[in-house]
Amino acid sequence: MAELKDQEHPQRFGDRAVVDELLRGDPTDRNLADLARLLIRYQGFPGARDIQADLQKVLEKWQLTPEQLFAKTRQIHATTRIFSTRNDGRDDWA
What is the DSSP string of 22-71? Predict the structure, then answer.
């Protein structure tokens, strides 16, 4: 069986910048929401190993498990509008 080659995610360039900010930042509501969003985006993605590793580093730095992070972000989203919508018709969750 042929070895599968890692893919490059179409959002990689912008996501790399966000991840770099998360590595330097503190767990603000926005940063927690970005971390959760990117963990979901890259979960099981065949590539972007550096981003996946750095997301794990941020979780460890902030002493959170994914379950704790998702519980916190559900609370944040229930009371606060973290992400503003864009009218360009694009979905950033891809």
Answer: HHHS---HHHHHHHHHHHHHHTT-SB-HHHHHHHHHHHHHTT--HHHHHH
Instruction: Give the number of other CB atoms < 10 A from CB of residue 51.
Output: 21
DSSP state of 86: -
- Residue 1 clears pLDDT 90, i.e. is over it: no
- Alpha carbons 1 and 9: distance in angstroms, whole number: 24
N- to C-terminal Cα separation, the chain: 29
Q: How far apart are CA 41 and CA 94, in angstroms?
A: 7
Question: Which token pair is 62?
Answer: 């902030």
pLDDT in tens, 29-52: 999 999 999 999 999 999 999 999
pTM: 0.84
